[in-house]
Every structure is written in structure tokens, then in C-alpha cells.
Design a protein that fits this description.
- By secondary structure, the chain is of the alpha/beta class.
- Helix content is about 40%, strand content about 20%.
- The strands form 4 sheets. The chain has an 8-stranded mixed β-sheet. Strands 9-10-11 form a 3-stranded antiparallel β-sheet.
- Helix 11 crosses helix 18, helix 15 (about 355-365) packs across helix 19 (about 420-435) and helix 16 packs across helix 17.
- The longest helix is centred in the last third of the chain and has 17 residues, at about 420-435.
């Protein structure tokens, strides 16, 4: 995917060119790796964006080089991580695939991926594979915003369990990892893992410290404005929220909101996701220009096995892709100690479970880039260049971009606040039907 107006080499010494081009996903890699601590993440239009402290910046160019939206050379990164180019362009490099879940009932209730990620982190800590994990939890003092921590105890790991459907700058924690002793894991979305891998290319010390990369399947993220919209539709003021969990109570899970009054509000997943989050409202443009659905550069990937027709008593199952020897060994070790349950499966099952997302990420991304380029917008440079599909991809591209554009307009946000859920759900189903049929 080539940029219509590639970022000038004259601007390569700062991350500003990426931010000005609206290509930033807010992953935080630039801020975490900057040797001069010259970059901070600031909230702009509902997402975290890098801001440079000019008096500290020495123009070294590292921030620009590690940005996953500057240049994503998938061939180079796959050679760096796995030693080979993937044969499977949908899933990337992998060694084995599983369906599984944690055997800790408490974890399955509080986590979004069957407790697999949380259990593997705790197991890695107990076995001495890592001394800490770079994870994200909701801030107790500011419950609508996440915070990145290095979890060094089981309690720390448990505090970070569950999905966060909002901007998360996990990679700002790179600095803390570099300043700490021992080996570490990191848990992130594709943009986070891409940023980490690019940073490891630049920094051997980081490569030696982060020994385990756990990736989450991802379709896109939403800005903080999406959560704000849901709260407004429920007539909840942000200042009245004391705690928020995006997916609580097991699969599918509900958004649970604890209020200062002591009241607890529960919003069904199918209501807030289908009607607002899943239709690409309040989504950064950079997010829909990502071609990685299953976190292809991680050691192990985990996500919901949608579309498999799993019986209700097995809804706890999660899709797992082991990409490295370390990942396989970790899974087998946790299984042997009866901490997780695994069912071996094939890559076709995993791809079937992610078909709409894979179609969106792989088949329609080029069309979205072409439409943006026609309006003079820059798009990321991805090597190798992606194939441009015809037909229904145009409609998918138009609808996702339309959702982003409309939700950026204050007047439309007012419409969304009062729009009935059934009408919004019809729009979501239209988008989903197009993606499934490609």
C-alpha cells in the first residue's frame, strides 16, 4: 500500500509528519523508545497522539523509524522475527493452532479471551520465563482511561484482565522495560506488536528484554468518543463513573459501569458493539489502514472464535495461534500443569472464525487507501504492496470511511446520541453482510 504523498525525508527526524498526516494509531512506540524523553502522548480528538518537546529533541530520527505507520516492511519483519516469509498471507507465520480456555473459573469470568492471556502471563511469571509483563488496566483514579503498567505479580496481571475498547498507548512502557532488570512479556494489538518489533530492530537491548509477545486479534479500535457516546445514550455523565469494564461476566460479556451512587449499569455487548463500536464510528483513519487481523508478528495470538457455531457450554473457547517454539512450549507447559485446556485445530478453522475481519483487513484495505489518496490524504507504505480487489470491496471501503467522517462531525454525534439502537444495528448488519460475502 503506497503513500500518495510519501512522507518527506526532510521530516524523517520527528514523528510529527505521521501525526500531521492522520496516520497515528497512538501505539506509543515513539514516546517509549525516545532516548531523550522528548515525546509525550496527548489526547487529541479522542485518541492519543505524540507531541514533541522541542527543547529536548535532538533529531535522532528513531521515533520516525519505529513508527508502524511510517513504513511497514512485512518481509523484513517476518525475516527478523521468524526467519522466513509466511506461506499463509492470511494468518502469517505459525506453527500450530488451537481452541482453548483457562481452567480457572475466576479468570474466565473476568477476562475476554477465555482467560488464556492472563493464565499464560501468570504461568510465565511462576516459571521464571519473565520477571514482568507490559500490560494495560483501567486507571482507578480516572476510570475511563487506561494506564500501562509492568505487572510483576499475579495481582498485577489480574488487574489488567479484560478488553479495553479505547485507545491504549501500551508501548510508552518501553522506557520502563529498558530501565528494569530481567525478561519481559508484552500484550498488545497488532499496531503495538508491530511497533515493538520495529523498535527491537533499532535497539538490541529491547530485543533481549522482551522475550514474549502476546498479540490480540483486532478489527479496529475506537476513540474515547465512542465510549462517551454510549454513556450519553445511557444518560450517564462521565463524572459519575467510578469504574468501567468493557466485557464482564463471561462470553459475550456486558459493558458494566459502576456509578458514584452505588448503582451498576450493564449494557449488552451486542448493543454497544453492534450499534456504535463495530460500525467504525469514532475510529481513527489509521486503524482501517492496518492489514493485520490476527497479530502476525506476535509469538502467540489470541482472539474470539466468532462464526464457528460453538455450543453455549463451550463459549469459553478462544482461538489461539502459536507462531514460535517459545509459544508452543509455553502452551504445552501450562496445559501439562492443568492451567489451561487445549483442543488442536487447523488454520482453516481459525480463518473461518475471523473471516469478516480477514476480508476487511486483507481484501478491502487497498480500496480504502485508494479512496483516501483521491482526496489527497497520505496512506501508509506497506511492503509488499497489497492487491486491489474489485466489486463489493468498494462498498465496504465507502461505508467504513463514511462512518469515520460522519462521527467526526459534532452534529452527527448529536444524531447518534438519540438514534434508536435497532436502526443503528441495521447499519452494522449491512456492513457485516458485505464483509462476509467477499
Amino acid at each position: 500500500m503506497r503513500a500518495s504523498k510519501p512522507v518527506s525525508s526532510a521530516n524523517r527526524n520527528t514523528i510529527e509528519a505521521i501525526g500531521k498526516s492522520h496516520l497515528c494509531t497512538g501505539c506509543g512506540t515513539c514516546a517509549g523508545i525516545c532516548p531523550k524523553n522528548a515525546i509525550e502522548m496527548k489526547l487529541i480528538d479522542g485518541i492519543n497522539c505524540p507531541a514533541i518537546r522541542k527543547h529536548r529533541c535532538n533529531g535522532c530520527g528513531i521515533c520516525f523509524e519505529v513508527c508502524p505507520r511510517n513504513l511497514l516492511d512485512l518481509g523484513k519483519l517476518n525475516e527478523f522475527v521468524f526467519g522466513k516469509i509466511p506461506d499463509d498471507t492470511s494468518l502469517g507465520n505459525y506453527r500450530s493452532c488451537y481452541l482453548g480456555y483457562s481452567l480457572d473459573e475466576r479468570l474466565k469470568r473476568n477476562a475476554s479471551s477465555g482467560g488464556i492471556v492472563t493464565t499464560l502471563l501468570i504461568h510465565a511469571l511462576e516459571e521464571g520465563i519473565i520477571e514482568g509483563a507490559l500490560v494495560t488496566r483501567m486507571n482507578q483514579n480516572n476510570p475511563l482511561e487506561p494506564e500501562t503498567i509492568i505487572a510483576k505479580t499475579q495481582e498485577d496481571v489480574l488487574s489488567a484482565a479484560g478488553s479495553k475498547y479505547c485507545p491504549v498507548s501500551v508501548n510508552t512502557g518501553i522506557k520502563a522495560v529498558l530501565e528494569s532488570k530481567g525478561k519481559f512479556a508484552v500484550v498488545g494489538l497488532p499496531c503495538h506488536i508491530q511497533g515493538i518489533r520495529k523498535a527491537e530492530l533499532q535497539n538490541n537491548a529491547l530485543r533481549e528484554k522482551i522475550v514474549l509477545h502476546i498479540g490480540l486479534f483486532c478489527s479496529h479500535t475506537n476513540s474515547f468518543l465512542a465510549t462517551q457516546c454510549i454513556l450519553e445514550k445511557a444518560c450517564i455523565g462521565s463524572n459519575n463513573v467510578v469504574a468501567l469494564n468493557y466485557r464482564a461476566g463471561g462470553w459475550l460479556g456486558n459493558m458494566t459501569i459502576a456509578l458514584k451512587s452505588g448503582e451498576a449499569v450493564s449494557i449488552p455487548y451486542r448493543q454497544y458493539w453492534d450499534c456504535i463500536f463495530g460500525s467504525f464510528f469514532f475510529t481513527p483513519v489509521a486503524c482501517i489502514l492496518c492489514n493485520d487481523a490476527t497479530n502476525e508478528l506476535s509469538d502467540i495470538s489470541v482472539g474470539d472464535p466468532w462464526g464457528l457455531g460453538i455450543p453455549n457450554h463451550l463459549k469459553k473457547l478462544r482461538a489461539i495461534v502459536a507462531r514460535t517454539v517459545l509459544a508452543e512450549n509455553l502452551l504445552m507447559s501450562a496445559w501439562s500443569k492443568k492451567q489451561i485446556r487445549l483442543f488442536s485445530t487447523n488454520c482453516s478453522t481459525i480463518k473461518q472464525s475471523q473471516m469478516p475481519n480477514l476480508n476487511f483487513k486483507k481484501k478491502t484495505i487497498r480500496k480504502r487507501a485508494m479512496l483516501l489518496q483521491k482526496f489527497g490524504e497520505r496512506t501508509p507504505i506497506v511492503v509488499p504492496e497489497l492487491i486491489s480487489y474489485k466489486g463489493k470491496t468498494y462498498f465496504s471501503a465507502v461505508l467504513s470511511l463514511l462512518s469515520i467522517y460522519l462521527s467526526s462531525r459534532p452534529r452527527f454525534r448529536y444524531v447518534l446520541k438519540y438514534a434508536p439502537y435497532p436502526l443503528l444495528r441495521l447499519y452494522f448488519r449491512l456492513i457485516s453482510a458485505i464483509e462476509m460475502s467477499m
